[in-house]
Amino acid sequence: MPELPEVETIRRDLLSRIVGRTITSAFVSSNAPRLVQLMPPAEFCKQLPGHRIEDISRRGKYLLVHLSGGLYWIVHLRMTGRFLHREDPCPEDPYLRAGFTLDNGSSLCFVDLRKFGTMWLIDDPSLVVGKLGPEPLSDDFTVAGLRDLLVRRSAPVKAVLLDQHAIAGIGNIYADEALFNAGINPRRAANKVSKPKTEALHAGVRQALLDALSDRGSSFSDYVDGSGRSGRHQLKVKVFRRTDQPCYSCGTQIRRVKVAGRSTHFCPNCQR
Ligand SMILES: [Zn+2]
Question: Cα of 2 to ligand 1 centre, how many Å?
């Protein structure tokens, strides 16, 4: 699933390509009945054309397309969604779930193999993103805030990192990478993480996300950027999906276990 670095890479790509353009037509495939939330797809397709794209922001894993008239078009890619800008119309594709044309003849194509992706057209984005935790790369994410979060929870620390209401934008890849950076066992109870380790985790989360951002995200399966190119960070991860391979720090074999129902990768020597 695309996480913060992947969604942020798409946002930056689209920003330079579609801001200032006006949407001229919209279609949603009848084979994607759950794509549009809170309104019928026909209503969504009727309302969207005529709006100018003013800006694009991001909250956690959500893209927020700011439209003229104070509307927000919110997109969540979920498992396999791709949100692509093309200079020509969306090509035939069995997984094309929605397509949007812009006033310069270019198009936005929403391609989604698994069909878990979701969109909203809404005037109050807080209805969708209002309960998300702080953005980990912003000043809202502090060591003290992370400490407050951890001391109140006895769940494994990895489960807290994955909780979008606790911190926004971290998924399975960067939770594992952040915990490796911090030298913390993913199964450790959140309220048993020491103060110095909390500081290390705060830094480790940011490092994991910034490293991935500088590589334009990780393409382990479906993720591509706003113009259809793969990211590069999957070649540089430290533990994620490196089961049985040697730890880059100490040579110990990376182990895989289940934590919070998710495949979890860690070095049993470096992460205590
Ligand atoms: Zn190690």
Answer: 26
